[in-house]
Amino acid sequence: xxxxxxxxxxxxxxxxxxxxxxxxxxxQETLHILLENFPKLRPLIMDENKLNLYTRIFIxxxxxxxxxxxxxxxxxxxxxxxxxxx
Length: 86
Description:
This protein is α+β, with helices and mostly antiparallel strands. The protein has a single domain (2-81), classed as Beta-grasp domain (Ubiquitin-like (UB roll)), CATH 3.10.20.30. It contains 3 helices and 7 strands, in the order βαβααβββββ. The strands form 2 sheets. It has a 5-stranded mixed β-sheet with strand order 2-1-7-5-6, with helices on one face. Strands 3-4 form a two-stranded antiparallel sheet. Strand 5 (55-59) and strand 6 form a beta hairpin. The protein is globular, with a radius of gyration of 12 Å. The protein starts with a strand and ends in a 5-residue tail after the last strand. 17% of the residues are buried.
């Protein structure tokens, strides 16, 4: 089981949870389960079936560019979004 970290902007549509535990083998599977449980996250992190340009995934502080990347037991997955504004 991995722990998924949600930044404050994403928590508002995930019952204000900072950490969510998910049983999954890959990043893709983790995202699928996360979005199944919290469908309002989809427009905030996805464009169609891929991550949007402003969202990055990190496993244990290393960027994971491949959504098929294997997740090990006790890994931490951070969903990080770029900040924008003017």
